[in-house]
Write a structure and sequence with these properties.
Number of strands: 13
Helix content: 40-55%
Radius of gyration: 41 Å
Structural class: alpha+beta
Distance between the termini: 97 Å
Strand content: 5-15%
Shape: flat
Length: 717
């Protein structure tokens, strides 16, 4: 152990110096983040009203109004709804061409299962809360853990059917979200990949550190567990104390500080992978070269060190709520709302004091009229201890009550004005917070404008999450899978078909056949706005007879269903042959077919009557009558021939839309009670046009008395 300790001593001192120096440089940002945390958790502090001029509001100092908490809650809910409102993970893949779609789908299935197993949805939701609170969040990974897949099967090997379990262990990648207060990056860097590295330091219990003994990759665990009081520094072990640097810094309240470092260290400080020829452990030469390393320190001792397996990338991933140019740290909702939080705290406390003064008032007391034990505290049933032998006038003037004016209205105006500034600073408006104030616009257009304006800052946040977290996680998981995910593991989880495709992908060695992207920003448009737009389009397109035949009503209904997300299973008919059409729609269509049939019968009757009249006509009056019937017959022929299949389809589509917009179902008795359709009387003076020049307007037959009249669309010229 002494050789290993000596071997890691230089690296431990280097990292200890970096950690303490970077932590000191981060101190101003740490204080700011602590204030943000206190505002979100509504923790009063001495300076939570500083700068408001309300330093004398002492009596109600414990009251802390949750303005920041409400803003953070609204932002978190809105972002999470945009990311996960569809019930799917916020990423998608697409092949470079359709022939490669099966391979892209196989990779997407593998990634989806891995993300669900590692709990990526829960991780991102917690990360959104971190961003809103602190303005900056850090994720690390991928790390590797062992997962076990258990399969239950029936075994007949012994002649008797038995249920047995087969266990299959495999390596599995996962990511972790760090507490922003525990992350100490290089203060000179503007991004994690540009500096010397980053520390992730936490306080752990001795039991957690002691459990690492079971892993042979860890060393010096016993020395890391020694607290300052039991390391024997006063008994001559000064060398051990020097090697462990500042032991008081690494041990506090019976807990041990564990610092994980991801970054660059001198190659000379790294232990060699193999011993030298003389059997002694060798150290890399001092060439000034820097190498990427992953180092774990516990109690000031290096307990694990490895070269970084992340191919030149830092495993840390930084995301910001609102980016600040040329800075590592972002700005969150809590920091933007800090001025308003202080104003609200001060104003509300002064309002409480002002109300107390106005309700309780003040009093002038002549203590000479009371016994020495009187404390003058007012409460229900209070009895004042006055001296004896006082006259009634002396008793009345012993206590004189004064009315205090109510001056709280001014502070209410101050709170309202501060709220407006807070809405502007945070981008979280009252509508976003669910506040149904009377001044909000209640029209659909007004609400859409308000929501669009309030969604712009949130859209920027979702873009940051997409680019800095989600797409990075997908890319790093794909890279890990290409190196370490076994085909047998894919077969156990997904089956032979996907396993075969994964084998071909691994043989290919890269994923240039597909692209992936985060979908948070794309799905951010508010469902209410999109729904209103779809409804407006439907009203415009389907109400116009000229545009109605050009619209696919089924596709329009499916888009409306997807946007509104009313339920899990869509009620829209999928069959194209119409076998499952609802009864009310069938009745409407039957009524339409009956009208067309009656028109055909009337046309045939007209032909027969014309022939009869031609045979019986012997005078001029008969000829005129024959001509009138001929004119009516030709008119019906023109109308009948003008009903093209496209026009019939338009009629059916219009009928479907009428049925869907009617609140009550179609009455079954209407069709049965419908009387035969009466043909309109022929007009003697009607000019008969040739078929190619005749107006393309269908006849308007009389409807049965109980049937609802149906509008017929105009036909194009």
């Amino acid at each position: 152990m002494s050789e290993q300790l000596q071997q890691h001593a230089g690296l431990a001192n280097l990292l200890h110096t970096r950690l303490t120096g970077w932590e000191q440089a981060r101190k101003p940002q740490e204080l700011k983040m602590l204030e943000c945390y206190q505002d979100v958790m509504r923790i009063p502090r001495a300076d939570d009203t500083s700068g408001t001029g309300a330093a004398r509001a002492k009596k109600a100092a414990g009251l802390f109004i949750g303005s920041t908490r409400n803003k953070v809650r609204a932002a978190r809910a809105k972002i999470n709804d945009a990311l996960f409102g569809s019930g799917k993970l916020p990423f998608d893949t697409s092949p470079t061409n359709e022939q490669l779609a099966p391979f892209a789908d196989a990779v997407e299935d593998i990634l989806t299962e891995q993300f669900e197993r590692m709990g990526l949805k829960r991780l991102l939701k917690t990360g959104v809360n971190t961003l809103a609170t602190y303005g900056t969040g850090f994720m690390f990974g991928p790390f590797v853990r062992t997962e076990t897949l258990i399969e239950t099967r029936a075994d007949n090997g012994l002649g008797v059917t038995q249920l047995v379990e087969d266990k299959y262990e495999f390596d599995f990648p996962y990511f972790e979200l760090a507490n922003t207060l525990d992350v100490i990056p290089d203060p000179e860097a503007r991004d994690l990949g540009a500096g010397l590295g980053v520390f992730w330091a936490t306080m752990e219990s001795p039991h957690t550190v002691a459990a690492w003994k079971a892993d042979k990759r860890y060393t010096n665990i016993d020395l890391a567990l020694q607290a300052p009081g039991d390391n024997g520094t006063s008994g001559g072990s000064d060398q051990a104390g020097q090697l462990r640097a500042n032991v008081d810094y690494w041990h506090k309240n019976s807990r041990i500080k564990v610092a994980r470092f991801f970054g660059k260290v001198p190659k000379s400080a790294m232990p060699a992978a193999a011993p030298a020829e003389d059997g002694e452990p060798s150290v890399a030469g001092d060439s000034g070269e820097m190498v990427d390393a992953v180092v774990i320190m516990a109690g000031g001792v290096v307990v694990k060190v490895d070269e970084s397996p992340y191919s030149g990338k830092n495993p840390g991933m930084r995301a910001v709520y609102e980016a600040v140019e040329h800075e590592m740290w972002g700005v969150g909702v809590a920091e933007n709302n800090a001025p308003h939080q202080k104003v609200v705290n001060a104003a509300f406390r002064l309002v409480m004091e002002g109300k107390g003064m106005a309700l309780l008032g003040t009093s002038s007391v002549d203590r000479s009229k009371f016994l020495p034990g009187e404390d003058f505290r007012k409460h229900p049933g209070k009895v004042y201890q006055m001296k004896p032998n006082l006259t009634p006038e002396e008793r009345q003037t012993a206590i004189i009550h004064h009315l205090e004016p109510d001056i709280t209205d001014g502070w209410r105006d101050m709170i309202a004005m501060s709220e407006q500034f807070s809405d502007d600073d945070t981008g979280i408006t009252k509508y976003t917070q669910g506040d149904d104030s009377s001044h909000l616009n209640k029209t659909a257009t007004g609400i859409s404008m308000i929501m669009s304006a309030s969604s712009l800052p949130i859209k920027e946040v979702i873009q940051n999450i997409d680019e800095q977290w989600i797409e990075e996680i997908v890319e790093r998981t794909v890279e890990w899978n290409l190196k370490y995910l076994e085909v047998e593991t894919v077969r156990k989880i997904h089956g032979d078909d996907i396993a075969q495709k994964w084998q071909q992908i691994k043989d290919f060695g890269k994923t240039s056949f597909m692209e992936w992207h985060a979908t948070g920003t794309a799905s951010f448009m508010q469902k209410e706005i999109l729904t209103n737009k779809i409804r407006a389009f439907a009203d415009f397109a389907l109400s116009n007879p000229n545009t109605a035949p050009m619209v696919d009503a089924r596709e329009l209904l499916e888009q409306t269903w997807d946007v509104m997300e009313i339920g899990r299973e869509s009620p829209i008919l999928k069959d194209e042959d119409g076998l499952d059409i609802p009864p009310q729609v069938k009745q409407k269509m039957q009524a339409l077919q009956e009208q067309i049939k009656q028109m055909g019968e009337a046309l045939n009757n007209a032909h027969a009557e014309v022939k009869q009249l031609e045979a019986a006509a012997g005078n001029k009056d008969g000829e005129l009558e024959v001509k009138a019937y001929e004119a009516e017959t030709k008119r019906l022929q023109v109308v009948g021939s003008g009903m093209s299949p496209e026009q019939i389809v338009a009629l059916v589509q219009q009928t479907l839309m009428q049925v869907l917009t009617q609140p009550a179902p179609f009455d079954h008795d209407q069709v049965d009670a419908a009387a035969p359709m009466a043909m309109p009387d022929a007009q003697p003076d009607m000019i008969v046009m040739p078929p190619e020049e005749a107006p393309m307007h269908p006849p308007e037959p009389a409807m049965p008395p109980e049937a609802e009249p149906m509008a017929m669309p105009d036909q194009p010229q």
